Amino acid sequence: MACTERMPTGPRNPQLSVSFWGYVVMNNLNLCIRIATMAAFLAAAAPALAGDAPKEPAPPMASGLSHELTQALLHANYAATATSVEDLHQHLHHVINCIVGPEGSGFDNNFMNPCHGMGNGALPDASSDAEKKHLNEVLEHAKAALRTDDFVLAKDAARIAVWTLMTGI
């Protein structure tokens, strides 16, 4: 099943449907994130692995919108799979910091910026209106999860943020 495919309707029993298909969706997203992370690593490491290492040292982190989105997705997934509301909120702050960038509205210096050195933030680095609209949707879901201490509601909003990142841009 592709990472961005819509999940089929679950079994006829609606109580089983939500938990069963929710489990399948999250496992599918976890696998897709692992594959995307490994692909990015292999692409960056390919010259060194092939013996064609560049003569100049590479910058410590890659730059660009795709890398910021990968980090935002990774931390959104951490939030969606968190075991406490505190951990969930922490990772959502990381998502927001990656999306808005250090100069953006909503950036919180009290939390790590996993996208440090990659660009100005996914939203400022986005070139099209469609990309910006999509990233604002992700921000709304992340902010909604931060506004509640209800673990179930926050986790649902984090999962929607993951899904929105996976199916967007």
Keywords:
169 residues; mainly alpha; 6 helices; 63% helix; disordered N terminus
Task: Please give a structural write-up.
With 169 residues, the chain is mainly α. It has one domain (14-167). It has 6 helices and no strands. α1 (14-49) packs antiparallel against α2 (65-80), α3 (85-100) packs antiparallel against α5 and α3 (85-100) packs parallel to α6 (151-167). The chain is globular, with a radius of gyration of 17 Å.
List the helices and strands and how they pair.
Layout: H1 14-49, H2 65-80, H3 85-100, H4 122-125, H5 129-146, H6 151-167
TL;DR of this structure?
By secondary structure, the chain is mainly alpha-helical.
Counting helices, strands and paired strands, the structural category is mainly alpha
Give the distance, in angstroms, between the N- and C-terminal Cα atoms. Answer: 19 Å
Task: Assign a percent range to the helix content.
Answer: 55-70%
Task: Give the integer mean of the pLDDT values.
Answer: 75
What portion of residues belong to β-strands? under 5%
Described by strand count, sense and barrel closure, the largest sheet is: none
Number of DSSP helical runs: 6
Spans where pLDDT lies below 50 across 5 or more residues: 1-25, 52-62
Number of strands: 0
* Number of individual domains: 1
- Order of helical and strand elements: HHHHHH
Inertia-based shape: globular
Q: Which radius of gyration do the C-alpha atoms yield? A: 17 Å
